[in-house]
Amino acid sequence: MSQDTYRLINPAGDEMELPVRKGTVGPDVIDVAKLYKTKGVFTYDPGFVSTGSCESDITFIDGEKGVLMYRGYPVEQLAAHSNFIEVSYLLLHGDLPTSAELESFDDTIRTHTMLNEGMLNFFKGFRYDAHPMAMLSAVVGSMSAYYHDEMDSSNPDHRDIFAHRILAKLPTIAAAAHKLNIGQPFMYPRNDLSYAENLLHMLFAVPAEPYEIDPIAAEALDLLFILHADHEQNCSTSTVRMAGSSGANPYSAIAAGISALWGPAHGGANEAVLTMLKEIGDVSQIGKYVEKAKDKNDPFRLMGFGHRVYKNFDPRATIIRDMCHKVLAKLDRKDTPLFDLAQELEQVALKDDYFIEKNLYPNVDFYSGIIYKALGIPTSMFTVMFALGRSVGWTAHWREMISDPAGKIARPRQLYVGAPQRDYKQIEER
Ligand code: ACO
Description:
Layout: E1 3-9, E2 15-21, E3 29-30, H1 35-39, E4 59-62, E5 67-70, E6 73-74, H2 75-81, H3 84-93, H4 99-110, H5 120-125, H6 132-146, H7 156-182, H8 195-204, H9 215-228, H10 235-244, H11 250-261, H12 269-280, H13 286-294, H14 315-330, H15 336-350, H16 353-357, H17 365-374, H18 382-402
Acetyl coenzyme *A is lined by residues 47, 265-267, 269, 293, 301-308, 358, 360, 363-365.
């Protein structure tokens, strides 16, 4: 890694050379780590808009060009030729597997899908209408209690076992949450099925009759998992890294990531898009809602539009829109009007000066909900689906963070704007 410098001059003419670090691709970063020690000032960047928080070799995004690569492979190529298990191996291990490596990895994930039977008791404690994201976060957090003994973060074998358990058991937990919501018996996993097929089985099968898995549904889910698998230092991944940086149990760090993902500004947007489309209801109402989104005094935003990093287009949205056509053509035509409405809304917004000037394009979640809905997955489960895909990214980042010898606890500073020192007053003097 070659080094350059960046010169900082304060109003008094005091100069400082800051090292500039260059990655393999993408913008340089100015290394400000020694700024406070040498000059006594902090940098200020709420929301980390211009701040790199770590060095990483997992995922690269060029937001201006709409590029997304996992370990150097463009997401379009992975979406066209790979599958979620192979992509998971790639993210966790850094390279595409040989066929023997893939077979062994696939076998490991397939044979770790069952939960400790005691974990199922957690679900008995939730109300029937508990949100599945709340249950997912709580039950994944409980894995820190079930698997504490095999979780020495400095042991590479334990780190592998952790990754396998997260990947293999999250679909089982997610499906159990769904079954609780709809009052059906929990379905045990089937290890003869692929990752997506097994999830469909656990979500939709019932013990009373055979369930036939639709190959298009499995294909669509697998594609969505690939597209959601990682997205560099996004809010939930940064949360996992931050929680994990204290040396906390990694299952708890993943539970923290799930909680962060739930918000409507992040993974919760897929649920919010469907709610929004239902509220808009008809193409004749699009103009009214686009105006609402542009109105500074109205809190309404076009959900599924805009992204912190993508200022051109989100390559995942394009791939998902194509899959939407395929799924609706084969599966559930009754959702076609919703898809037509979404496409029309996209066209209107893309031609509007407000959205053009602010570089607001559909993001990954604009069309994903339409696919989930056509597959029969309820709206409250949409963000859970996102979490299943992203779980491998969180795990890969936790492993990278914890094995970095230069790793430090994440501990930002602040600009304090509160009261200066003052003396305590007795209650009768206030
Ligand atoms: N509708 C209307 N206006 C928008 C939208 C939107 N969806 N998104 C951004 N804007 C406007 C803002 O009002 C702001 O305007 P201003 O400059 O006049 O104040 C400008 O565009 C920039 O927006 P910010 O919120 O400052 O951009 P930021 O990078 O912080 O936020 C975010 C990105 C959170 C994704 C935002 O675009 C948003 O809220 N989108 C809707 C929610 C959504 O789809 N989230 C999913 C993101 S993808 C993911 O996490 C998986």
